[in-house]
Amino acid sequence: MIDDEEKTRFDKNMANDMSSVSHMFKLVALGDGAVGKTSCIKRYTEDSFSERYIATIGTTFALKTLDVELPSGSTVTARVVLWDLAGQPTYNELRRRYMAGASMAMIVYDVTRPQTFLDIGDWFTRFITVCPNAVVAVVANKIDREDRLVPSEAGNMVQQWLDVMHYETSAKTGENINLLFTDLVKRAIEKQQELGPIDQTMAGTPPHRPSKLGV
Ligand SMILES: Nc1nc2c(ncn2[C@@H]2O[C@H](COP(=O)(O)OP(=O)(O)OP(=O)(O)O)[C@@H](O)[C@H]2O)c(=O)[nH]1
Ligand SMILES: [Mg+2]
Questions:
Q1: pTM
Q2: Which residues line ligand 1 (CB under 6 A)?
Q3: 191 C-alpha to ligand 1 centroid (Å)
Q4: Does the CA dihedral 13-18-21-23 come out positive or negative?
Q5: Which tops the pLDDT comparison, 201 or 49?
Q6: CA nearest ligand 1 atom 3, residue
Q7: Can you give the residue ranges of every domain in the chain?
Q8: Nearest C-alpha to atom 14 of ligand 1 is from which residue?
Q9: CATH class assigned to 4-195
Q10: 20 — pLDDT class (breaks 50, 70, 90)
């Protein structure tokens, strides 16, 4: 139970906290079921990992505030709302609606399951149709596993084909997880500067950019 005094204190803290934040972004995690979307977000926001698979139901979100150094040398504080959308096909319609307004997406596949890699193109098309100006990173996850089947070259090919960022990660060991999110935010800030001042809530949508997939 939160009383009025406590709520006022919370609101004040929140306002103070927000005063240093100069950029707000929405990030959506996409990719097939069980590829490790929730695990990557957990590793980044809580620095924890669990071997147990609990499928995400519908959608959840987490917050992260980070300082990023820009090429100009200045440091800015950004806040990211990370939307974690279930990968199971039942949620397709829900997902379309939740992608709206995203400035960035991470599209994750599991290097031990080639089908999750083959599905990357579909995820990209669905996302870029809704958010044509957003920054996209394709993420090869579970690189700690010894039964890897999708080689690095496949990821490099997709990077060039779709003109996206590409990272190889392990939510289990934490390898490249911080780098992935920090680079996404840096790129999103650059993109915002290129596009000019636009409404943050619409950061992922206008104007239309022709995509390589012709959508
Ligand atoms: N070895 C290893 N296992 C991982 C890694 N990332 C995730 N896992 C495991 O893979 C399983 C699925 O991870 P989740 O993060 O729940 O996958 P998800 O993409 O969020 O799945 P949905 O919510 O169903 O869409 C869990 O058992 C995790 O422990 C990784 O980098 N390495
Ligand atoms: Mg999940």
A1: 0.85
A2: 33-39, 50-53, 55-56, 86-88, 141-142, 144-145, 170-172
A3: 30
A4: positive
A5: 49
A6: 142
A7: 4-195
A8: 36
A9: alpha beta
A10: confident
